[in-house]
Write a structure and sequence with these properties.
By secondary structure, the protein is α+β, with helices and mostly antiparallel strands. Helices cover 44% and strands 23% of the residues. The protein is built from 9 helices and 13 strands. A 6-stranded antiparallel β-barrel has the order 1-2-5-4-3-13. Strands 7-8-9-12-11-10 form a 6-stranded antiparallel β-barrel. A hairpin with a 5-residue loop joins strand 3 and strand 4 (205-214).
């Protein structure tokens, strides 16, 4: 009984020392005891670890209670269905919270094991071998806790960077005019959009922002604003201010099918667009829903326009906005954003790297720069 009382008294002194509840004389005496008694010093180290774990567990409990309160408030306000969350953003957050809570529960289990071990160490049956085993168990649990801390941090970071799940209801095509994330598409593709995202040929999706739009020319410029987006090397195709020649072969790449880049070819059939529109031109090519915003290129890999419409009563007849309008749109964007240092370096490439290549080679070099534009 005396051993048990001594252990409890010593453990109480250790805790008072760690919490800073000793007066100066007691603290000095205890520190001298730590220096002369290795078991007392080891108990201080292990009990400090134990209290840290308990504090961490308490913080996770508060975090879980906070999540529950948020969920209940949202449910009471009718913003979510408590039984079965619906909607893109809320469903995404709810699923992420469940994963985080699962990790918190595992930490609770580890802490419970530590508590059990410490209580066992102060019972009358405690032996030196049991004490050594307890130290090993605590060290192992500490290592596991560090691993789980990293997992939690990684999960938090992925929650921050992850693009929210948004139910997009319309789509078109866009293509880069600069490797830092500026794209051009049709204005009618993004008109009245609340959210815009772009998806590359590999199926990776990025959030984007409309930075310029002009209904008169049917041109819009987007900027990818997503931490996961990495700048691409120089644009392989070029932009020309010259009008294409009649019967000149042209081709385009776009997304008339979900998640699949499609190649089409044809020729220039008129230097003016629909109903004699001088801003556009007419091309003999099959265009489907989703092709709007696709680049129209000649055999040298020069962009001569942006595909923007098809004639409903004529099979294979489509129209494009002439590329001269892309130059004008970029100049207008810069004029309205003179303080934007990023925009100052954005220039349309005027030297193609595709001249002399066969069409499959040209297409392979271009496809990473063509994006599906998704809006809702």
């Amino acid at each position: 009984m005396n051993d048990q009382q001594n252990n409890i008294t010593l453990l109480d002194a250790v805790e008072r020392y760690i919490m800073g509840n000793m007066n100066p004389d007691e603290r000095l005496h205890f520190e001298n005891l730590r220096k002369t008694d290795s078991e007392v010093d080891q108990m201080v180290v292990e009990h400090t670890l134990f209290l840290q774990k308990m504090n961490r567990f308490n913080q996770w409990q508060k975090f879980q209670l906070s999540l529950n309160e948020i969920h209940n408030n949202l449910s009471a306000q009718g913003k979510i269905d408590a039984a079965q969350p619906k909607g893109g953003k809320l469903r995404y957050l709810f699923n992420r919270v469940k994963k985080t809570a699962a990790i918190a529960a595992s930490i609770a289990g580890i802490t419970a094991l530590i508590v059990s071990g410490i209580i066992g160490s102060v019972t009358p049956k405690a032996t030196n071998s049991q004490f050594e085993k307890l130290k090993r168990d605590i060290n192992n649990l500490a290592q596991k806790s560090q691993i789980q801390d990293r997992e939690i941090n990684n999960l938090k970071q992925s929650d921050i960077n992850k693009t929210p799940e948004i139910p997009y209801i319309n789509s078109g095509t866009g293509f880069l005019i600069d490797g830092k994330g500026y794209l051009v598409t049709n204005n009618h593709v993004i008109e009245n959009a609340q959210n815009v995202a772009v998806q590359n040929n590999a199926g990776k999706e990025f959030l984007a922002q409309v930075v310029y739009s002009n209904p008169a020319t049917d041109i819009a410029i987007l900027k990818i604003n997503d931490p996961d987006f990495k700048s691409l090397p120089g644009i392989p195709y070029s932009f020309t201010k010259k009008s294409a020649d009649l019967a000149e072969p042209i081709f385009t790449l776009g997304y008339p099918k979900d998640d699949e880049l499609v190649y089409k070819q044809g020729y220039l059939s008129s230097r003016t667009g629909f109903d004699g529109d001088t801003l556009g031109c007419q091309i003999d090519i099959r265009a489907d829903r989703g092709n709007s915003g696709s680049p129209v290129l000649n055999s040298n890999g020069e962009v001569i326009g942006i595909l923007n419409a098809r004639q409903r009563d004529a099979q294979g007849v489509a129209f494009a906005v002439q590329s001269q309008n892309i130059f004008n749109a970029l100049n207008e964007l810069k004029a309205h954003n003179k303080s934007d240092s990023t925009l100052k370096s954005v220039k349309l490439n005027t030297k193609t790297a595709l001249t002399g290549l066969k069409r499959p080679q040209q297409t392979k070099k271009i496809e990473d720069y063509i994006y599906m534009v998704k809006v809702n």
